[in-house]
Hints:
By secondary structure, this protein is of the alpha+beta class. It has one domain. It contains 6 helices and 4 strands, in the order ααααααββββ. Strand 2 (112-116) and strand 3 form a beta hairpin. Helix 2 runs antiparallel to helix 6 and helix 4 (55-66) crosses helix 5. It is globular.
Amino acid sequence: xxxxxxxxxxxxxxxxxxxxxxxxxxxxxxxxxxxxxxxxxxxxxxxxxxxxxxxxxxxxxxxxxxxxxxxxxxxxxxxxxxxxxxxxxxxxxxxxxxxxxxxxxxxxxxxxxxxxxxxxxxxxxxxxxxxxxxxxxxxxxx
Length: 142
């Protein structure tokens, strides 16, 4: 049975990204990183998906999947379980976000960024070692 937090994780968080080098506008780097994350979700690419997460976000994914009682450990296996639960509706939301999010949807605060998704939910990202990573894969706040 799919819970609301898993649906949110599958639709919003499963699909965000890592940093883009070479962009003059830091908001563009956030958008590009977000696109990588979203593409990893759509492509069901667990390795890339996990590479788009901060350590805290990875812990959140592990806890979400542990709550399913499936005895899965590790980010990549957890991501695969989330991909399995993502339905067509969630995939459409992720694809829409990947296509529609622009620099106008990004709010920067130093090494932190908030991306407002088409749904109105906010995905938090953080810059670590020059890369923008998803800090809150559940995108639970509006």
